[in-house]
Design brief:
Number of strands: 15
Distance between the termini: 16 Å
Structural class: alpha+beta
Length: about 375
């Protein structure tokens, strides 16, 4: 596998060098996609631009029904990087570079595996996963693609992950009546007071969900991320906004959770309640269907001789494939603990393990 790892690192060095930071969502149909056109001879290539930096490249060889999916966009780098984030460094058993772990390492492995094989294979590379804007995958799934299984690459330490939480983000607007803070009406008239009361009720509800379980996951994940409003300490706040997010179990109904959270607000004080992003859980579906889908993914992992890992709390686009009826799992090299960090890295042995598995599957 030493020669294979050398090829993986050659491809990874090139992939890291392409600036696919998201934001600013400035990714076009050339650049990194021209590289894939060059290194995937024998594949039918189809590039689709969905706008705002959302681009997919579908590469197909033969007549596969199983799809590998990898997102190529990365988070922005931070000032804490110790060297150029777009220049791959290999030392002490690690490959360091922006996106090396999340998740260009997987793309490099797939290209190297394709070079070593001639069997059916299909890759879908996308560029909007880090934008909380799944137009790439949603657009692809609306086509007559013909795939029945999807292996979505995210850092899972080369274990097949069969279940993860969903995700939903919300913007709430509260309204109040401006006035002097010395008045007793400030207790009810302040939009900020209403937002804080809502937060207390929401937190109590989340605590009451701590006993719920699915596939090794427990409870409801919840976070109030931002509260804004008011003018100064002696003025009753006439308006306030609050952003929060929650990550439900596969067995929880997202719409029912939204209804509950909305009802925790005083009806007279709530100006608007807007869901800004939603991603289904993996597996997608109601409780009975979710368990059936998880078992189907387990059977696939066993068929492919992949070690099965624990369910995870982070969200992935594998759930979109599941919602569209494909048997889907998350499977990729690296550890999520290194994703989005300064001097992001992936272990060389993880790249070797993933490349070997991809080669075996393609053969």
């Amino acid at each position: 596998m030493a020669g294979m790892l050398d090829r993986v690192l050659t491809h990874l060095e090139k992939l890291v060098s392409f600036d696919t930071r998201n934001p600013p969502r400035a990714i076009g149909t050339g650049g990194i996609f021209d590289y894939f056109r060059e290194v995937l001879p024998g594949f039918r290539i189809e590039v689709t631009d969905y706008g705002d930096g959302a681009v997919t490249l579908l590469a197909v060889r033969g007549n596969p029904t199983r799809l590998f999916n990898v997102h190529l966009d990365t988070v922005p780098d931070s000032p804490h990087w110790s060297a150029d984030p777009l220049k791959l460094r290999v030392a002490e058993g690690r490959a360091v570079g922006l996106g090396a772990c999340d998740i260009k390492g997987a793309a490099a492995c797939l290209v190297a595996a394709a070079e070593q094989t001639s069997g059916d294979a299909a890759f879908l590379f996308s560029t909007d996963e880090e934008a909380n804007d799944a137009r790439c995958i949603e657009g692809f799934l609306k086509t007559d693609h013909g795939f029945r299984e999807a292996l979505v690459a995210e850092p899972t330490r080369c274990e097949a992950v069969l279940a993860h939480r969903g995700i939903s983000s919300v913007l709430m607007q509260f309204k109040g009546r401006a006035g002097h803070a010395s008045g007793a009406e400030a207790m009810q008239a302040s939009a900020l007071h209403q937002a804080i009361r809502w937060g207390g009720r929401a937190l109590d509800h989340v605590g009451a969900c701590s006993h719920l379980r699915f596939g090794g996951l427990t409870g409801l994940r919840f976070n109030i991320g931002r509260v804004e409003g008011g003018i100064k300490a002696n003025v009753i706040a006439p308006a306030a906004s609050l952003r929060f997010g929650f990550r439900p179990l596969p067995s929880q109904d997202i719409d029912a959770l939204h209804q509950a959270f909305r009802e925790f607000a005083d009806e007279q004080a709530l100006a608007s309640y807007e869901e800004t992003f939603r991603g289904p859980p993996l597996p997608a579906g109601d409780v009975a269907r979710a368990e059936d889908k998880r078992l189907a993914a387990r059977d696939l992992a066993e068929e492919l001789d992949l070690p099965i890992g624990n369910a995870v709390d982070f969200w992935t686009e594998a759930s979109l494939f599941s919602a569209a009826g494909l048997t889907a799992m998350v499977f990729g090299p690296g550890d999520i603990a290194q994703a989005h960090t300064a001097d992001e890295w992936v272990a060389l042995d993880q790249l070797g393990t993933y490349a070997a598995a991809a080669t075996r599957i393609m053969q």
